[in-house]
Amino acid sequence: MEAVKLRNHAFELFNVSLKSVTPCTMMLNSLKISGNILSVGDQSYVLNNNVHIVAFGKAVIGMVKTAEDILGDHIVDGIASIPSGIQSTLKSFGKWDFLPSVTSKVKLIEGSTNNCPDENSLRAAQEIKKLVTKCGENDIVLVLISGGGSALLPSPTPPLTLQELSTVTQMLSKKGATIQQLNTVRKHLEELKGGGLAKAAFPAQVISLILSDVVNNDLNFIASGPTSQDFTTPQQCFDLLENFDLLNCVPQSVFTVLNDRSQSEEFKKDSESEHTLKKSVASFHCRNVHNVIIGSNVIALNSALKYADSLGYGTYLLSSSVTGDAEERGQMFALLINYICRTMYSKNKPDQLLVKNEFDLLHRGLEKSQLNELCKVVTEYDQCSKPVCILAAGETTVNVVGQGMGGRNQHMVLSAAIELNKLLETDVLSKYAITFLSAGTDGQDGPTDAAGASCDQTLIKQALKLNLKAEDFLRTNDSYTFFSKVDAGRYLLKTGLTGTNVMDLQIILISPIS
Ligand SMILES: Nc1ncnc2c1ncn2[C@@H]1O[C@H](COP(=O)(O)OP(=O)(O)OP(=O)(O)O)[C@@H](O)[C@H]1O
Ligand SMILES: O=C(O)[C@H](O)CO
Protein backbone atom coordinates (compact mmCIF):
# COMPACT_ATOMS: atom_id res chain seq x y z
CA MET A 1 0.00 0.00 0.00
CA GLU A 2 2.73 2.39 1.07
CA ALA A 3 4.53 1.85 -2.25
CA VAL A 4 1.37 2.68 -4.24
CA LYS A 5 0.89 5.85 -2.19
CA LEU A 6 4.44 6.90 -2.99
CA ARG A 7 3.96 6.14 -6.67
CA ASN A 8 0.85 8.33 -6.71
CA HIS A 9 2.76 11.09 -4.94
CA ALA A 10 5.50 10.89 -7.55
CA PHE A 11 2.91 11.21 -10.36
CA GLU A 12 1.35 14.18 -8.57
CA LEU A 13 4.74 15.86 -8.12
CA PHE A 14 5.44 15.42 -11.80
CA ASN A 15 2.10 16.95 -12.77
CA VAL A 16 2.61 19.89 -10.41
CA SER A 17 6.01 20.60 -11.92
CA LEU A 18 4.46 20.49 -15.42
CA LYS A 19 1.91 23.12 -14.42
CA SER A 20 4.67 25.47 -13.25
CA VAL A 21 6.26 25.46 -16.69
CA THR A 22 3.16 26.20 -18.71
CA PRO A 23 4.26 28.49 -21.54
CA CYS A 24 1.57 31.03 -20.63
CA THR A 25 3.09 31.90 -17.23
CA MET A 26 6.58 32.29 -18.64
CA MET A 27 5.44 34.41 -21.58
CA LEU A 28 3.50 36.74 -19.27
CA ASN A 29 6.65 37.19 -17.19
CA SER A 30 8.72 38.05 -20.26
CA LEU A 31 6.62 40.35 -22.46
CA LYS A 32 5.53 43.68 -20.98
CA ILE A 33 3.47 46.18 -22.88
CA SER A 34 2.82 49.82 -22.08
CA GLY A 35 0.96 51.88 -24.69
CA ASN A 36 2.70 51.05 -27.93
CA ILE A 37 5.98 50.12 -26.28
CA LEU A 38 6.88 46.47 -25.89
CA SER A 39 9.57 45.68 -23.32
CA VAL A 40 11.47 42.44 -23.33
CA GLY A 41 14.16 42.35 -20.66
CA ASP A 42 16.20 45.51 -21.07
CA GLN A 43 15.09 46.15 -24.68
CA SER A 44 12.15 48.20 -25.95
CA TYR A 45 10.35 48.04 -29.29
CA VAL A 46 7.80 50.32 -30.90
CA LEU A 47 4.62 48.45 -31.77
CA ASN A 48 2.86 49.59 -34.91
CA ASN A 49 0.88 46.64 -36.23
CA ASN A 50 4.24 45.26 -37.22
CA VAL A 51 4.67 41.94 -35.38
CA HIS A 52 5.20 38.70 -37.31
CA ILE A 53 5.27 35.48 -35.29
CA VAL A 54 7.24 32.40 -36.22
CA ALA A 55 7.24 29.49 -33.80
CA PHE A 56 8.53 25.93 -33.69
CA GLY A 57 8.78 23.38 -30.90
CA LYS A 58 6.76 21.15 -28.62
CA ALA A 59 5.73 24.00 -26.30
CA VAL A 60 5.12 26.84 -28.72
CA ILE A 61 1.39 26.46 -29.23
CA GLY A 62 0.73 27.89 -25.76
CA MET A 63 3.39 30.55 -26.35
CA VAL A 64 1.58 31.66 -29.52
CA LYS A 65 -1.71 31.84 -27.65
CA THR A 66 -0.23 34.07 -24.93
CA ALA A 67 1.64 36.25 -27.44
CA GLU A 68 -1.72 36.86 -29.13
CA ASP A 69 -3.37 37.72 -25.84
CA ILE A 70 -0.63 40.27 -25.13
CA LEU A 71 0.00 41.75 -28.56
CA GLY A 72 -3.50 41.58 -30.07
CA ASP A 73 -3.89 43.57 -33.29
CA HIS A 74 -0.19 44.35 -33.50
CA ILE A 75 0.23 40.87 -34.91
CA VAL A 76 0.18 40.88 -38.69
CA ASP A 77 0.69 37.22 -39.46
CA GLY A 78 2.53 34.12 -38.32
CA ILE A 79 3.39 30.47 -38.80
CA ALA A 80 3.80 27.89 -36.04
CA SER A 81 5.26 24.44 -36.58
CA ILE A 82 3.86 22.21 -33.85
CA PRO A 83 3.87 18.44 -33.14
CA SER A 84 1.29 16.20 -34.83
CA GLY A 85 -1.75 15.64 -32.67
CA ILE A 86 -0.98 18.33 -30.11
CA GLN A 87 -4.17 20.33 -30.66
CA SER A 88 -6.47 17.35 -30.21
CA THR A 89 -4.49 16.17 -27.13
CA LEU A 90 -4.70 19.59 -25.50
CA LYS A 91 -8.42 19.75 -26.26
CA SER A 92 -9.01 16.30 -24.84
CA PHE A 93 -7.25 17.32 -21.61
CA GLY A 94 -9.31 20.54 -21.46
CA LYS A 95 -6.21 22.73 -21.83
CA TRP A 96 -8.06 25.46 -23.72
CA ASP A 97 -5.69 28.13 -22.39
CA PHE A 98 -2.96 26.61 -24.62
CA LEU A 99 -4.98 26.99 -27.82
CA PRO A 100 -4.94 30.08 -30.07
CA SER A 101 -8.37 31.41 -31.04
CA VAL A 102 -10.11 30.23 -34.21
CA THR A 103 -9.57 33.71 -35.68
CA SER A 104 -5.83 33.55 -34.99
CA LYS A 105 -3.55 35.22 -37.52
CA VAL A 106 -0.96 32.59 -36.83
CA LYS A 107 -1.24 29.55 -39.06
CA LEU A 108 -0.66 26.32 -37.13
CA ILE A 109 0.99 23.47 -39.02
CA GLU A 110 1.21 20.07 -37.31
CA GLY A 111 3.98 17.69 -38.28
CA SER A 112 7.03 15.64 -37.26
CA THR A 113 5.26 12.66 -35.67
CA ASN A 114 7.52 11.08 -33.03
CA ASN A 115 10.03 13.90 -33.49
CA CYS A 116 10.84 12.85 -37.08
CA PRO A 117 10.81 15.70 -39.61
CA ASP A 118 8.21 15.15 -42.35
CA GLU A 119 6.68 16.91 -45.36
CA ASN A 120 4.39 18.97 -43.12
CA SER A 121 7.14 20.37 -40.93
CA LEU A 122 9.27 20.93 -44.05
CA ARG A 123 6.42 23.01 -45.51
CA ALA A 124 6.13 24.91 -42.22
CA ALA A 125 9.87 25.65 -42.27
CA GLN A 126 9.64 26.87 -45.87
CA GLU A 127 6.72 29.16 -45.00
CA ILE A 128 8.59 30.46 -41.96
CA LYS A 129 11.59 31.28 -44.10
CA LYS A 130 9.39 33.04 -46.67
CA LEU A 131 7.63 35.05 -43.97
CA VAL A 132 10.76 36.33 -42.24
CA THR A 133 12.56 37.03 -45.51
CA LYS A 134 9.95 39.58 -46.55
CA CYS A 135 10.26 41.51 -43.24
CA GLY A 136 12.03 44.87 -43.20
CA GLU A 137 13.80 46.91 -40.54
CA ASN A 138 10.55 48.33 -39.15
CA ASP A 139 9.11 44.89 -38.62
CA ILE A 140 9.38 42.88 -35.44
CA VAL A 141 9.84 39.14 -35.90
CA LEU A 142 8.79 37.40 -32.70
CA VAL A 143 10.43 33.98 -32.74
CA LEU A 144 9.01 31.49 -30.23
CA ILE A 145 11.30 28.55 -29.64
CA SER A 146 11.14 25.44 -27.50
CA GLY A 147 12.66 21.99 -27.41
CA GLY A 148 11.69 19.81 -30.33
CA GLY A 149 12.25 22.88 -32.50
CA SER A 150 15.01 21.17 -34.46
CA ALA A 151 12.69 18.46 -35.77
CA LEU A 152 9.92 20.99 -36.37
CA LEU A 153 12.05 23.33 -38.48
CA PRO A 154 13.74 21.01 -40.99
CA SER A 155 15.62 22.88 -43.69
CA PRO A 156 18.03 20.43 -45.38
CA THR A 157 20.62 22.10 -47.57
CA PRO A 158 20.36 20.68 -51.12
CA PRO A 159 21.28 18.15 -52.38
CA LEU A 160 20.51 16.64 -48.96
CA THR A 161 16.88 15.49 -48.88
CA LEU A 162 14.45 15.50 -45.98
CA GLN A 163 14.60 11.72 -45.80
CA GLU A 164 18.40 11.75 -45.73
CA LEU A 165 18.40 14.39 -43.00
CA SER A 166 16.08 12.20 -40.90
CA THR A 167 18.28 9.19 -41.47
CA VAL A 168 21.43 10.97 -40.29
CA THR A 169 19.83 12.45 -37.19
CA GLN A 170 18.25 9.11 -36.23
CA MET A 171 21.53 7.30 -36.70
CA LEU A 172 23.31 9.74 -34.39
CA SER A 173 20.50 9.69 -31.82
CA LYS A 174 20.44 5.90 -31.68
CA LYS A 175 24.20 5.78 -31.26
CA GLY A 176 23.75 7.84 -28.08
CA ALA A 177 24.86 11.24 -29.39
CA THR A 178 24.13 14.09 -26.98
CA ILE A 179 21.83 16.88 -28.12
CA GLN A 180 24.89 19.12 -28.47
CA GLN A 181 26.53 16.62 -30.82
CA LEU A 182 23.34 16.01 -32.77
CA ASN A 183 22.63 19.71 -33.17
CA THR A 184 26.20 20.49 -34.20
CA VAL A 185 25.59 18.28 -37.22
CA ARG A 186 22.13 19.71 -37.85
CA LYS A 187 23.56 23.24 -37.87
CA HIS A 188 25.79 22.40 -40.80
CA LEU A 189 23.31 20.34 -42.77
CA GLU A 190 20.38 22.76 -42.53
CA GLU A 191 19.86 26.31 -43.68
CA LEU A 192 17.79 27.75 -40.84
CA LYS A 193 19.86 26.41 -37.94
CA GLY A 194 23.00 27.86 -36.34
CA GLY A 195 21.88 31.47 -36.87
CA GLY A 196 20.30 30.74 -40.27
CA LEU A 197 16.88 32.07 -39.29
CA ALA A 198 18.42 35.31 -38.00
CA LYS A 199 20.20 35.65 -41.32
CA ALA A 200 16.94 35.14 -43.25
CA ALA A 201 15.12 37.69 -41.06
CA PHE A 202 17.80 40.39 -41.34
CA PRO A 203 17.30 43.43 -41.21
CA ALA A 204 14.07 42.96 -39.18
CA GLN A 205 14.19 43.34 -35.40
CA VAL A 206 14.15 39.83 -34.01
CA ILE A 207 12.99 38.90 -30.52
CA SER A 208 13.50 35.23 -29.69
CA LEU A 209 11.72 33.90 -26.63
CA ILE A 210 13.17 30.53 -25.75
CA LEU A 211 11.97 27.82 -23.39
CA SER A 212 15.09 25.84 -22.62
CA ASP A 213 15.28 22.05 -22.82
CA VAL A 214 19.07 21.92 -22.86
CA VAL A 215 21.39 21.43 -19.90
CA ASN A 216 22.89 24.79 -18.85
CA ASN A 217 20.45 26.61 -21.17
CA ASP A 218 23.00 26.96 -23.94
CA LEU A 219 21.31 29.12 -26.61
CA ASN A 220 23.45 27.67 -29.34
CA PHE A 221 21.94 24.26 -28.94
CA ILE A 222 18.29 24.80 -28.04
CA ALA A 223 16.46 23.87 -31.27
CA SER A 224 19.92 24.11 -32.91
CA GLY A 225 20.27 27.84 -32.22
CA PRO A 226 18.36 29.31 -35.20
CA THR A 227 18.81 32.89 -33.99
CA SER A 228 22.14 32.67 -32.24
CA GLN A 229 25.65 32.96 -33.50
CA ASP A 230 27.19 29.58 -34.18
CA PHE A 231 30.74 28.66 -33.19
CA THR A 232 30.90 25.11 -34.50
CA THR A 233 32.56 24.02 -37.74
CA PRO A 234 31.96 21.45 -40.51
CA GLN A 235 35.15 19.73 -39.39
CA GLN A 236 33.51 18.99 -36.03
CA CYS A 237 30.73 17.21 -37.93
CA PHE A 238 33.22 15.03 -39.78
CA ASP A 239 34.89 14.22 -36.46
CA LEU A 240 31.58 13.34 -34.83
CA LEU A 241 30.54 11.07 -37.69
CA GLU A 242 33.89 9.37 -37.47
CA ASN A 243 33.71 8.95 -33.68
CA PHE A 244 30.28 7.36 -33.94
CA ASP A 245 31.56 5.13 -36.72
CA LEU A 246 29.04 6.52 -39.19
CA LEU A 247 31.31 7.82 -41.95
CA ASN A 248 30.56 4.78 -44.09
CA CYS A 249 26.83 4.78 -43.39
CA VAL A 250 25.61 8.32 -44.04
CA PRO A 251 24.32 9.36 -47.48
CA GLN A 252 26.80 10.84 -49.96
CA SER A 253 24.95 14.17 -49.95
CA VAL A 254 26.03 14.71 -46.34
CA PHE A 255 29.64 14.89 -47.54
CA THR A 256 28.65 17.16 -50.42
CA VAL A 257 26.96 19.64 -48.05
CA LEU A 258 29.73 19.52 -45.43
CA ASN A 259 32.49 19.83 -48.03
CA ASP A 260 30.76 22.77 -49.74
CA ARG A 261 30.40 24.43 -46.39
CA SER A 262 34.05 23.89 -45.48
CA GLN A 263 35.00 25.64 -48.73
CA SER A 264 32.58 28.54 -48.21
CA GLU A 265 33.74 32.05 -47.31
CA GLU A 266 32.37 31.59 -43.82
CA PHE A 267 34.86 28.89 -42.99
CA LYS A 268 37.94 30.06 -44.81
CA LYS A 269 40.66 31.08 -42.42
CA ASP A 270 41.00 34.79 -41.85
CA SER A 271 44.60 35.54 -42.83
CA GLU A 272 45.01 38.14 -40.07
CA SER A 273 44.00 35.89 -37.21
CA GLU A 274 43.09 32.36 -36.32
CA HIS A 275 39.42 33.36 -36.18
CA THR A 276 37.20 32.43 -39.06
CA LEU A 277 35.35 34.98 -41.11
CA LYS A 278 32.21 33.21 -40.11
CA LYS A 279 32.16 34.91 -36.75
CA SER A 280 31.96 38.40 -38.17
CA VAL A 281 29.39 37.42 -40.82
CA ALA A 282 27.15 35.73 -38.26
CA SER A 283 27.51 38.45 -35.65
CA PHE A 284 26.44 40.95 -38.32
CA HIS A 285 23.18 39.05 -38.88
CA CYS A 286 22.63 38.47 -35.18
CA ARG A 287 23.11 42.10 -34.17
CA ASN A 288 19.35 42.76 -34.51
CA VAL A 289 18.47 39.72 -32.44
CA HIS A 290 17.48 39.72 -28.80
CA ASN A 291 17.56 36.13 -27.47
CA VAL A 292 15.82 35.62 -24.13
CA ILE A 293 15.51 32.39 -22.15
CA ILE A 294 12.04 32.53 -20.58
CA GLY A 295 12.14 29.33 -18.57
CA SER A 296 13.94 26.10 -17.78
CA ASN A 297 13.76 22.98 -15.66
CA VAL A 298 14.79 24.93 -12.55
CA ILE A 299 11.25 26.34 -12.34
CA ALA A 300 9.78 22.83 -12.58
CA LEU A 301 12.16 21.50 -9.92
CA ASN A 302 11.42 24.32 -7.50
CA SER A 303 7.68 23.87 -7.75
CA ALA A 304 8.01 20.12 -7.20
CA LEU A 305 10.20 20.77 -4.14
CA LYS A 306 7.57 23.11 -2.74
CA TYR A 307 4.76 20.64 -3.35
CA ALA A 308 6.74 17.75 -1.82
CA ASP A 309 7.31 19.91 1.22
CA SER A 310 3.56 20.53 1.49
CA LEU A 311 2.99 16.75 1.39
CA GLY A 312 5.28 16.42 4.41
CA TYR A 313 8.47 15.24 2.68
CA GLY A 314 11.94 16.42 3.61
CA THR A 315 13.36 17.55 0.27
CA TYR A 316 16.74 17.68 -1.47
CA LEU A 317 17.63 18.92 -4.95
CA LEU A 318 20.36 16.73 -6.36
CA SER A 319 20.96 18.27 -9.80
CA SER A 320 19.31 20.10 -12.67
CA SER A 321 21.81 18.74 -15.19
CA VAL A 322 21.81 14.95 -15.15
CA THR A 323 23.48 13.71 -18.34
CA GLY A 324 25.25 10.54 -19.45
CA ASP A 325 24.16 7.05 -20.31
CA ALA A 326 20.58 6.34 -19.15
CA GLU A 327 21.42 2.79 -18.05
CA GLU A 328 24.36 3.92 -15.92
CA ARG A 329 22.35 6.75 -14.43
CA GLY A 330 19.61 4.27 -13.54
CA GLN A 331 22.16 2.20 -11.63
CA MET A 332 23.43 5.35 -9.96
CA PHE A 333 19.95 6.34 -8.79
CA ALA A 334 19.37 2.83 -7.40
CA LEU A 335 22.63 3.01 -5.48
CA LEU A 336 21.68 6.43 -4.23
CA ILE A 337 18.34 5.12 -2.97
CA ASN A 338 20.14 2.31 -1.19
CA TYR A 339 22.65 4.78 0.24
CA ILE A 340 19.84 6.93 1.65
CA CYS A 341 18.08 3.94 3.16
CA ARG A 342 21.35 2.74 4.72
CA THR A 343 22.07 6.21 6.05
CA MET A 344 18.71 6.30 7.78
CA TYR A 345 18.95 2.70 8.94
CA SER A 346 22.43 2.96 10.42
CA LYS A 347 21.41 5.94 12.60
CA ASN A 348 24.96 7.27 12.51
CA LYS A 349 26.44 3.97 13.66
CA PRO A 350 29.45 2.57 11.78
CA ASP A 351 28.20 0.77 8.66
CA GLN A 352 30.66 -0.84 6.28
CA LEU A 353 28.12 -1.19 3.51
CA LEU A 354 27.43 2.52 3.70
CA VAL A 355 31.10 3.21 3.11
CA LYS A 356 31.11 0.86 0.13
CA ASN A 357 27.96 2.50 -1.19
CA GLU A 358 29.56 5.91 -0.91
CA PHE A 359 32.61 4.69 -2.76
CA ASP A 360 30.40 3.36 -5.57
CA LEU A 361 28.55 6.64 -5.83
CA LEU A 362 31.75 8.69 -5.95
CA HIS A 363 32.91 6.38 -8.69
CA ARG A 364 29.73 7.20 -10.63
CA GLY A 365 30.34 10.93 -10.54
CA LEU A 366 28.58 12.21 -7.44
CA GLU A 367 30.72 14.49 -5.31
CA LYS A 368 31.86 13.81 -1.77
CA SER A 369 30.54 17.17 -0.55
CA GLN A 370 27.15 16.42 -2.08
CA LEU A 371 26.96 13.02 -0.40
CA ASN A 372 28.00 14.51 2.95
CA GLU A 373 25.28 17.11 2.66
CA LEU A 374 22.73 14.50 1.59
CA CYS A 375 23.64 12.31 4.59
CA LYS A 376 23.21 15.24 6.90
CA VAL A 377 19.78 16.30 5.65
CA VAL A 378 18.48 12.75 5.37
CA THR A 379 19.52 12.04 8.97
CA GLU A 380 17.72 15.19 10.11
CA TYR A 381 14.57 14.21 8.22
CA ASP A 382 14.74 10.73 9.68
CA GLN A 383 15.05 12.11 13.20
CA CYS A 384 11.77 13.94 12.77
CA SER A 385 10.20 10.93 10.98
CA LYS A 386 9.84 12.69 7.66
CA PRO A 387 9.79 10.73 4.42
CA VAL A 388 12.39 11.89 1.92
CA CYS A 389 12.02 13.36 -1.57
CA ILE A 390 15.09 13.78 -3.81
CA LEU A 391 14.72 15.54 -7.14
CA ALA A 392 16.89 15.73 -10.22
CA ALA A 393 16.54 16.70 -13.87
CA GLY A 394 18.42 16.65 -17.14
CA GLU A 395 18.69 14.63 -20.31
CA THR A 396 20.47 11.31 -20.70
CA THR A 397 21.30 9.29 -23.81
CA VAL A 398 20.75 5.69 -24.87
CA ASN A 399 22.81 3.63 -27.22
CA VAL A 400 19.89 1.90 -28.94
CA VAL A 401 21.02 -1.49 -30.21
CA GLY A 402 17.82 -3.51 -29.99
CA GLN A 403 14.60 -3.38 -32.00
CA GLY A 404 12.33 -2.83 -28.98
CA MET A 405 10.12 0.10 -27.99
CA GLY A 406 11.25 2.49 -25.31
CA GLY A 407 12.66 5.84 -24.37
CA ARG A 408 15.55 7.09 -22.27
CA ASN A 409 13.37 7.56 -19.15
CA GLN A 410 11.81 4.11 -19.23
CA HIS A 411 15.23 2.65 -20.00
CA MET A 412 16.72 4.43 -16.99
CA VAL A 413 13.94 3.31 -14.66
CA LEU A 414 14.21 -0.29 -15.83
CA SER A 415 17.94 -0.21 -15.23
CA ALA A 416 17.34 1.24 -11.74
CA ALA A 417 14.76 -1.45 -10.99
CA ILE A 418 17.21 -4.22 -11.92
CA GLU A 419 19.86 -2.71 -9.67
CA LEU A 420 17.39 -2.22 -6.80
CA ASN A 421 16.41 -5.85 -7.07
CA LYS A 422 20.07 -6.84 -6.65
CA LEU A 423 20.50 -4.44 -3.73
CA LEU A 424 17.44 -5.90 -2.06
CA GLU A 425 19.66 -8.81 -1.06
CA THR A 426 21.40 -6.49 1.42
CA ASP A 427 18.11 -6.40 3.31
CA VAL A 428 17.86 -2.70 4.19
CA LEU A 429 15.74 -1.73 1.19
CA SER A 430 12.95 -4.02 2.34
CA LYS A 431 12.46 -1.83 5.40
CA TYR A 432 11.53 1.18 3.28
CA ALA A 433 8.82 2.02 0.79
CA ILE A 434 10.45 3.60 -2.23
CA THR A 435 9.55 4.99 -5.62
CA PHE A 436 11.80 6.12 -8.43
CA LEU A 437 10.28 7.97 -11.36
CA SER A 438 11.85 9.40 -14.49
CA ALA A 439 9.77 11.11 -17.16
CA GLY A 440 10.00 13.65 -19.97
CA THR A 441 8.16 16.92 -19.39
CA ASP A 442 7.06 16.94 -23.05
CA GLY A 443 4.95 13.86 -22.26
CA GLN A 444 6.62 11.61 -24.82
CA ASP A 445 9.54 9.36 -24.00
CA GLY A 446 11.16 8.18 -27.25
CA PRO A 447 8.57 7.10 -29.82
CA THR A 448 6.14 5.80 -27.15
CA ASP A 449 2.86 7.12 -25.74
CA ALA A 450 4.28 7.26 -22.20
CA ALA A 451 6.09 10.22 -20.61
CA GLY A 452 8.16 7.82 -18.54
CA ALA A 453 7.88 5.20 -15.84
CA SER A 454 8.31 4.52 -12.16
CA CYS A 455 9.57 1.56 -10.19
CA ASP A 456 9.97 0.24 -6.69
CA GLN A 457 12.05 -2.61 -5.28
CA THR A 458 9.31 -5.18 -5.96
CA LEU A 459 8.88 -4.51 -9.69
CA ILE A 460 11.38 -7.07 -10.92
CA LYS A 461 9.98 -9.84 -8.69
CA GLN A 462 6.46 -9.05 -9.93
CA ALA A 463 7.75 -9.34 -13.50
CA LEU A 464 9.43 -12.66 -12.79
CA LYS A 465 6.10 -14.06 -11.63
CA LEU A 466 4.84 -13.23 -15.13
CA ASN A 467 7.91 -14.87 -16.65
CA LEU A 468 9.28 -11.52 -17.77
CA LYS A 469 13.03 -11.19 -17.46
CA ALA A 470 13.84 -7.50 -17.07
CA GLU A 471 17.44 -7.86 -18.26
CA ASP A 472 16.24 -9.15 -21.64
CA PHE A 473 13.97 -6.15 -22.12
CA LEU A 474 16.76 -3.76 -21.15
CA ARG A 475 19.19 -5.39 -23.57
CA THR A 476 16.77 -5.19 -26.48
CA ASN A 477 15.74 -1.59 -25.67
CA ASP A 478 12.22 -2.80 -25.02
CA SER A 479 11.45 -1.02 -21.75
CA TYR A 480 8.01 0.17 -22.93
CA THR A 481 6.85 -3.40 -23.61
CA PHE A 482 8.15 -4.45 -20.20
CA PHE A 483 6.34 -1.70 -18.32
CA SER A 484 3.15 -2.24 -20.32
CA LYS A 485 3.02 -5.86 -19.18
CA VAL A 486 3.80 -5.57 -15.46
CA ASP A 487 0.94 -4.66 -13.09
CA ALA A 488 -1.26 -3.83 -16.09
CA GLY A 489 0.98 -0.92 -17.05
CA ARG A 490 0.46 0.97 -13.77
CA TYR A 491 4.14 1.84 -13.48
CA LEU A 492 3.93 3.80 -16.73
CA LEU A 493 3.18 7.49 -16.59
CA LYS A 494 0.95 8.63 -19.45
CA THR A 495 0.20 12.34 -19.66
CA GLY A 496 -0.25 12.77 -23.42
CA LEU A 497 1.65 15.60 -25.12
CA THR A 498 1.90 18.26 -22.42
CA GLY A 499 2.44 21.42 -24.44
CA THR A 500 5.65 22.18 -22.56
CA ASN A 501 9.22 20.83 -22.65
CA VAL A 502 12.00 21.35 -20.11
CA MET A 503 13.82 18.01 -20.40
CA ASP A 504 13.31 15.07 -18.03
CA LEU A 505 12.66 14.93 -14.28
CA GLN A 506 13.68 12.27 -11.78
CA ILE A 507 11.83 11.85 -8.50
CA ILE A 508 12.92 9.61 -5.60
CA LEU A 509 10.56 9.10 -2.67
CA ILE A 510 11.55 7.07 0.40
CA SER A 511 9.52 6.36 3.50
CA PRO A 512 10.25 3.94 6.36
CA ILE A 513 7.70 1.12 6.58
CA SER A 514 6.01 1.46 9.95
N1 LIG B 1 13.80 1.73 -27.88
C1 LIG B 1 14.40 2.72 -27.20
N2 LIG B 1 14.84 2.51 -25.93
C2 LIG B 1 15.45 3.50 -25.23
N3 LIG B 1 15.63 4.74 -25.71
C3 LIG B 1 15.20 4.99 -26.96
C4 LIG B 1 14.57 4.01 -27.76
N4 LIG B 1 14.26 4.58 -28.96
C5 LIG B 1 14.67 5.88 -28.89
N5 LIG B 1 15.25 6.12 -27.69
C6 LIG B 1 15.85 7.37 -27.22
O1 LIG B 1 14.86 8.39 -27.27
C7 LIG B 1 15.50 9.63 -27.48
C8 LIG B 1 14.82 10.37 -28.60
O2 LIG B 1 13.55 10.66 -28.19
P1 LIG B 1 12.87 11.98 -28.65
O3 LIG B 1 13.00 12.05 -30.13
O4 LIG B 1 11.51 12.02 -28.05
O5 LIG B 1 13.86 13.02 -28.06
P2 LIG B 1 13.67 14.24 -27.19
O6 LIG B 1 15.01 14.49 -26.62
O7 LIG B 1 12.55 14.09 -26.24
O8 LIG B 1 13.34 15.33 -28.25
P3 LIG B 1 13.60 16.86 -28.13
O9 LIG B 1 14.81 17.08 -27.29
O10 LIG B 1 13.82 17.27 -29.54
O11 LIG B 1 12.39 17.41 -27.49
C9 LIG B 1 16.95 9.36 -27.80
O12 LIG B 1 17.72 9.59 -26.63
C10 LIG B 1 16.94 7.86 -28.15
O13 LIG B 1 18.16 7.25 -27.90
O1 LIG C 1 14.93 20.62 -30.69
C1 LIG C 1 16.02 20.32 -30.22
O2 LIG C 1 17.09 20.47 -30.84
C2 LIG C 1 16.13 19.79 -28.86
O3 LIG C 1 14.88 19.63 -28.25
C3 LIG C 1 17.00 20.68 -28.02
O4 LIG C 1 16.45 21.93 -27.91
Automatic annotation (TrEMBL):
Domain of life according to the entry: Eukaryota
Alphabetical list of Gene3D superfamilies matching this protein: Glycerate kinase, MOFRL-like N-terminal domain (3.40.50.10180), MOFRL domain (3.40.1480.10)
Annotated MOFRL-associated domain residues: 11-258
Catalytic activity reported: (R)-glycerate + ATP = (2R)-3-phosphoglycerate + ADP + H(+)
Enzyme nomenclature, EC number: 2.7.1.31
Sorted UniProt keywords: ATP-binding, Kinase, Nucleotide-binding, Transferase
Alphabetized GO MF terms: ATP binding; glycerate kinase activity
Any matching Pfam family: DUF4147
Domain MOFRL stretches: 388-504
GO cellular component: cytoplasm
The UniProt record lists the keyword Kinase: yes
Top EC group: transferase
Family recorded in the similarity comment: Belongs to the glycerate kinase type-2 family.
Name of the molecule in the record: Glycerate kinase
Organism: Helobdella robusta (Californian leech)
Lineage of the organism: Eukaryota, Metazoa, Spiralia, Lophotrochozoa, Annelida
